[in-house]
Amino acid sequence: MIPFWFILITILWLGFFVLEGFDFGVGMLHRVIGRDEAGSRMAINTIGPLWDGNEVWLIVAAAAMFAAFPGWYATMFSGFYIALVLLLVALIVRGISFEYRGKRESPRWRRNWDRLMVAGSLLAPLLIGVALGDLLHGVPINASQEFTGSLLSLLQPYAIYTGITLTAICVLQGATFLALKTAGDVRDRAGRLSRRVAPVTAVAVLAFASWTHVTAGKGALLSPAEFAAVIGAVAATWFVHDRREGWAFTATTVTMAASVLSIFVGLYPRVMVSSTSPAFDLTVHNTASGSYALGVMTVVAVIALPFVLAYQAWSYYVFRRRLTASSPRPGPPAPARPGGRSRG
Amino acid sequence: MNVDLARWQFAFTSVNHFFFVPVTIGLAFLTALLQTAWYRGRRPEFLRLTRFFGTLLVINVAIGVVTGLVQEFEFGMNWSAYSRLVGNIFGAPLAMEGLLAFFLESTFLGLWLFGWDKLSRKVHLLTIWAVAVGSMLSAAFILAANSWMQHPVGYTISKQTHQPQLNDIWAVLTNPVFVWGYAHVLLASLVTGSAIMLAVSAWQLRRGGAAAVFTRSARLALSVLLPAMLFAMLIGSELGVIEGRYQPMKIAAAEAQWTTCQPCSFSIFQIGGGNQDQTPTQIFAIPHLLSLLATNHWDGKVTGLSPLQAQYSKKYGPGYYVPNVFIQYWSMRLMAYTAGLMLLVGAWGLWLLRRKKLTGSPLFLRIATWAAALPFLMNTAGWLLTESGRQPWAVQGILLTKNAVSPSVSTAAIAFSLAVFVALYGVLGVVDLMLMLRYARRELPAQEASQHPDAPMPAVQY
Fold first, then answer.
1. Residue among A54, A124, A70 at smallest CA distance from A288
2. Which residues of A touch B58 (CB under 8 A)?
3. CA atoms in the 13 A half-sphere facing the CB of A5
4. Is B80's Cβ below 8 Å from some Cβ in A?
5. How far is B324 from chain A (nearest CA, A)?
6. How many Å apart are CA B438 and CA A8, to the nearest integer?
7. Taking a C-beta distance cutoff of 8 angstroms, is the pair A26, A178 a contact?
8. CATH topology of domain A2-317
């Protein structure tokens, strides 16, 4: 049951990065790609109905760590303190900016919320990426599982690079998503941007996969996850140049999933590496909850997750259409059809 | 020092979080009722009301969600010793909340908001009900977790690690503190939501807003408000008896009862008091009322704080086990008195409504508008009563609050995060209030809605 929960938590983190990845990207790019108010709005509305549900993956991932591996949750959250304060600020500001930017008809009001949205969407994946990198690279942890470092001990080159890579993948994922979900100028600009970003990201991912491999120190060959990340990034570059938007987005998604997965694969059975001594590593075994608690939650997760996946998939299906210029706004104030009923 | 800062931070962030949560729970339910009324009768005014109050709901949900994120992180950040010790019990309901409730609420809120012209009317109606149910379920799991801290059940102390281990989830989910506490919180949330709906309707009616429409929402609000308030009080009184059984300190402190009494009187207010002054001047002591409230018996016995302190010192070792008596005494009264006022407002409004005089009473409309502040005072006081009354324990009888903080986090870090949250929440609170007032005072979008019943909500846009 202990490995099951490690796998489940990995899946929750993957779900978070894959889904929130593109909406972080859209949050960063909506101004650049959207350019004017109508374009920005179209960009934001591609994720309007979805971002909130996506963010829940993070909440559930953290709660699952709390419940299944309290020691991991306790050490990581108290150790990464200042970084998490900044993360919370970024997520709060970003979430609020979605809801509030359109609530007043003032350009200044909008511009301010837009800036906050960009900053929050950029900072959040960067910080989480650094945190995940630190898990694998290792931070000072003593025999009683307490973090003994400072903010500086979190700023390892590998961890920072992980943050940068994941952020870059978010940008690419966001751009390909926008190309897939919009029309007209916005779509063109999204396509152009993704063609420019893709090769850079592919190189970054290649370096990341190699560095992760070295940091994890497991065998000579790249692990399947690391390999898949590289393949995904190369394929994404190919597809964006070929203007195959659906495939391009799929490839960036694979890149994101495989990159995050490679960190967790590198970790197992550890959950937090101690740079003080390998003897002090936090592992799935020395941080896990009792078997009864894990059993109860396994039942809940096995029953609930299929439903969650089903209705989230359904919501993606409902909002599958490309947004066009005539429906630039959400619940898109699609032009009201007089008296008509419409179904999706 | 760290304990104090961490406690301030938790109190500040959770009190703020709970400004938004009951509004979400209450308004989601009421909005769902409005939309159901529209679905069944197709009367356009219900659609207009659904959209109007739906907008207020959305403004609130946004802040409720992000402030909830802070709460979840805070356990690990500031209270890592606590998390390490009881995560396998306390974490379980939190994880269940995410899996069973929060996904539901968030996903369906997106579907509801953006699905007006994409879903059939029936399915669209179901999405708002999913939001309402999700928000209520969410509160259930949080309350189950909190109740475990008030009255730990369903665990054993492990022989190897000496840590509490979950061994009966059913006991956690049927904890009497949880069952009664949850009903109490749910009803208080309905009171909060309906008080806001009443206040907005009253303001609109007083300003000559669409009278036919806002009389309907006022009627709905009043018919939820009065019974919800009444049952919240009755259940709260039973909850007091239950808590008195498991946390006698909490109840004794709420009356500043230092010596054991039988029967016990309840003072309307007092002069002086607090942990240093054991003989405050009690004004208007009502005989037998405390006995009744604390034990359900006319002549019930309430053990005083001093004998309880002696008893606890013997059981748990030397220490001071009395909660902050000043907070207990006054939060109890603030909660009860604001609830009483709310009940009066509700009864008055319903009486006016029956006599069809609601719109003709500017005084009532004015008071009903301001009465929106009452549930917030009531809710905050209620949480202070229950949380401060648990002190000095983080988990009653198992872990002291001073031993629950993160050992690795510096005072400066906690102070920094506290300052950040105070500043951020301050700004958010102002923005939220500003937008709520703006949208609450907006005129109902006139004919647009009735002409195009399927047109998407104009206000809800990014």
1. A70
2. 99
3. 33
4. yes
5. 28
6. 44
7. yes
8. Formate dehydrogenase/DMSO reductase fold (1.20.1630)
Distance CA A261, CA A250 (A): 16
Domain residue spans of chain A? 2-317
Residue A19, CA distances (Å) to A14, A50, B186 in order: 8, 9, 32
> For the residues A13-42, what does the mean pLDDT come to?
91
Alpha-carbon torsion (A274, A279, A282, A287), positive or negative: negative
Nearest CA in chain B to A305: B99
* Unique residue bearing structure tokens 């979430």: A95
Close Cβ partners of B351 (under 8 Å, ≥ 6 residues apart): none
Percent of chain A with pLDDT over 90: 63
Contact A70 B91 (CB under 8 A): yes
What angle separates helix A107-137 from helix A37-47, to the nearest 10 degrees? 40
* Distance in angstroms (rounded) separating the CA atoms of residues B290 and B270: 15
Contact A78 B87 (CB under 8 A): no
- Spatial CA neighbour of A141 closest among A12, A7, A270, A228: A270
- Count of beta carbons in the 10 Å neighbourhood of residue B257: 26
* Residues comprising chain A, all counted: 344
Which residues partner with B286 through β-bridges? B266
Find out whether A72 and A287 touch, Cβ atoms under 8 Å. yes
Residue A343 is nearest to which of B73, B77, B120, comparing CB atoms? B120
Joined together, the tokens standing for residue A184 give 């007209």
Q: List all residues 6 or more positions away from B227 whose beta carbon is below 8 Å from its beta carbon.
A: none
pTM of the predicted protein model: 0.90
Q: In a mutagenesis test of the B interface, which of A40, A88, A322 is the best target, namely the one with the most B β-carbons within 10 Å?
A: A88
Helix/strand/coil (H, E, C) string of A1-70? Answer: CHHHHHHHHHHHHHHHHHHHHHHHHHHHHHHHHHCCHHHHHHHHHHHCCCHHHHHHHHHHHHHHHHHHCH
Residue A89 predicted with pLDDT over 90: yes
Shortest Cα–Cα distance, A305 to chain B (Å): 7
CA–CA gap between residue A145 and residue B76 (Å, rounded): 13
Asked whether the beta carbons of residue B113 and residue A339 sit closer than 8 angstroms, the reply is no
Cis peptide bond upstream of B248, omega within 30: no
A80-105 in b/e burial notation, b at 16+ Cβ within 10 A? bbbbbbbbbbbbbbbbbbbbbbbbee
pLDDT at A123: 96
Q: Over the stretch A284-341, which tens digit does the pLDDT of each residue have?
A: 989 888 889 999 999 999 999 999 999 999 998 888 888 876 554 443 333 333 333 3
* Domain parsing of chain B, residue ranges: 2-247+324-451
| Cβ-based neighbour number of residue B170 at 10 Å | 10
Q: Could you tell me if A242 and A233 are in contact, meaning their C-beta atoms sit under 8 angstroms apart? A: no
**Which residue has 């309007």 as its token pair?**
A48
Mutation choice for B interface testing from A26, A57, A69, A92 by most B CBs within 10 A: A92
Q: How large is the angle between the packed helices A224-242 and A184-216, nearest 10 degrees?
A: 160
